[in-house]
Amino acid sequence: MAIKSRSARRRAREYALQGIYAWIVSGCVHQEKGAIDAHIRSDEEFASADEGWYKTILYGVFDQAGQLREKFSRFIDRPVNELSPIEHGVLLLATFELSESVDVPYKVVINEAVELTKEFGGTDGFKFVNGVLDKLAAELRPIEVNAKS
Q1: CB-side exposure of 5: number of CA atoms within 13 Å?
Q2: Residue 66: inside a domain
Q3: What is the mean pLDDT of the chain?
Q4: In this protein, which residues make up the domain named NusB/RsmB/TIM44 (predicted)?
Q5: Which residues contact 59 (CB under 8 A, 6 or more apart)?
Q6: Do the domain assignments include residue 69?
Q7: Cα dihedral across residues 130, 131, 136, 142: positive or negative
Q8: pLDDT computed for residue 5 by the predictor
Q9: What is the pTM of this model?
Q10: What is the 3-state secondary structure (H, E, C) of 79-124?
Q11: Which helix H or strand E contains 53, and what residues bound it?
């Protein structure tokens, strides 16, 4: 169901989110990481994704999940384990990008996260994700957020 007009980076985020989702629902089991990655890469349309970006996001989230959760948990209104797996995954992905990929403008990170949540999440999940990431971006990238656009 890929839409050809999506950028390779967007496709990488979609595939990474699928892997993060699978990892979350498996209970964040270390042994599942390689199997999840292999399964995602076996999709016939995976070649349309930016493989390097996918790997950076997926393994970055796997390796830093605890720290990433600490960063966004102050801005959520419930325990992390009560988030939907999609909201949880999108917040992990976007928090990783905000923290580690300063070459990606914060507005792009938030927009991509909102779009992923709209596509894969519940009806109003994107509003929640947007609110959390707006607050997190102000904390992690204050100069960029406060700069005159």
Answers
A1: 0
A2: yes
A3: 92
A4: 10-137
A5: 33
A6: yes
A7: positive
A8: 63
A9: 0.93
A10: CHHHCCHHHHHHHHHHHHHHHHCCCCCHHHHHHHHHHHHHHHCCCC
A11: helix 51-73
